[in-house]
Amino acid sequence: MLGARCDNRQRWHLAGCSTLTTSDVRTQSETFMKAAYFSAPGPPEVIQYGELPRPIAGPSEVLVRTAAVAVNPIDTYIRNGANYWPLPSPYIIGCDLAGEVIEVGGSVRQFRVGDRVWCSNQGLMGRSGTFAEFCCVDEQWLYPLPTNVDYEVGAAIALVGITAHLGLFARANLQAGETILVRGGSGGVGSVVIQMAKRLGARVVTTAGSSDKARACQELGADHVVLYREQDEVQAVREFAPQGVNVLWETARIPNFDRSVEMLAERGRMILMAGRDARPEFPVGPFYVKQCQLHGFVMFKATAKEQRKCAEEINQWMADGSLKPRISHRMKLAEAAQAHRMQEQSTVHLSGEVAGKIVLVP
Length: 362
Ligand SMILES: NC(=O)c1ccc[n+]([C@@H]2O[C@H](COP(=O)([O-])OP(=O)(O)OC[C@H]3O[C@@H](n4cnc5c(N)ncnc54)[C@H](OP(=O)(O)O)[C@@H]3O)[C@@H](O)[C@H]2O)c1
Known about the structure:
Layout: E1 11-12, H1 28-31, E2 32-38, E3 48-53, E4 55-56, E5 61-70, H2 73-79, E6 91-92, E7 96-104, E8 116-119, E9 134-138, E10 142-144, H3 151-171, E11 179-182, H4 188-200, E12 203-208, H5 211-219, E13 224-227, H6 233-240, E14 245-250, H7 257-263, E15 264-272, H8 284-289, E16 293-296, H9 304-319, E17 327-332, H10 336-347, E18 357-361
Parallel strand pairs: 11-12, 11-14, 12-13, 14-15, 15-16, 17-18
Antiparallel strand pairs: 1-4, 2-3, 2-6, 5-7, 5-9, 5-18, 7-8, 8-10
Helix pairs in contact: 3-4, 3-9
């Protein structure tokens, strides 16, 4: 059956599985689930939608019935064969999820059956992904979903919310009254960075590829939007912030550091979190003479404690309505391959057709 197996990360209910106990025995209809997965990396067409064994919660795990999931660019890099770590086979795609707890492992303390929850950081570092009707999540990566927040919102904010929080507060140390340039303000990450920065009391300038996207950025709270296809970005940013920006959040996969450093203020901080293969030139002299700092990070290497700190504030902000994901497309889980195609076209091939998040429901 599709290479099904039992190991510490993924216990599936199958006859002969050594982790099976009498209390685990389920009816046939409870034994399988629909999932989007692949067995070997490749283009979006490698994604299959079909039945896989339903996972069983280990002692520290929670079994969640999926209500919504969201696509991230990293999902497409992994599917394409980016050799970050060995993948389970078959590999269920996806990092983000929101849903309802239906089973808890024996040592789980923070969650009960019936709780509404969300998570990110699945499908990464060898863990199985979220694009399935059910998902087992270790409780360290799971967070309660506020009662007034929709599942779709929880799934769509997950990875980008934690990324934005880590970058703005743990890395760039953005302060109220400072100015930040968010490159790519209508994107999944950029749209959340804008909102968190405004919430803190920063002045926000961002970039957009069209006037529709510029309007969307303004609705999210941006004070000024540069139409980078029509305007000279450096000049426009300098007009908004004559002394330069205190923080520059770069979402482009191939940054132009000459222009970026020109836009930074004295003691400015630059966040880098995209473009693994990028090797652009770097203007060492102008950078250090301005006493600037460079911060690079990947969210999935943050510890569970660091991510939980982000999630707790994200929960407060989702609940009080000050943080909302920008949902670009809603689709069915069965359309996972098409969702990957759209995300890849938009983020990697720069078609710009996705402005925010793609959310899928079972
Ligand atoms: N390190 C981490 O932990 C981490 C976490 C999340 C994401 N990422 C990475 O960060 C990147 C962004 O992620 P995302 O989810 O926000 O992707 P996204 O939703 O596709 O957003 C990308 C943004 O880039 C903008 N853009 C495209 N070409 C541009 C150009 N030439 N100049 C300026 N802006 C341009 C797009 O806006 P327009 O259409 O308006 O041009 C869009 O808003 C991806 O590469 C992703 O893999 C890293």
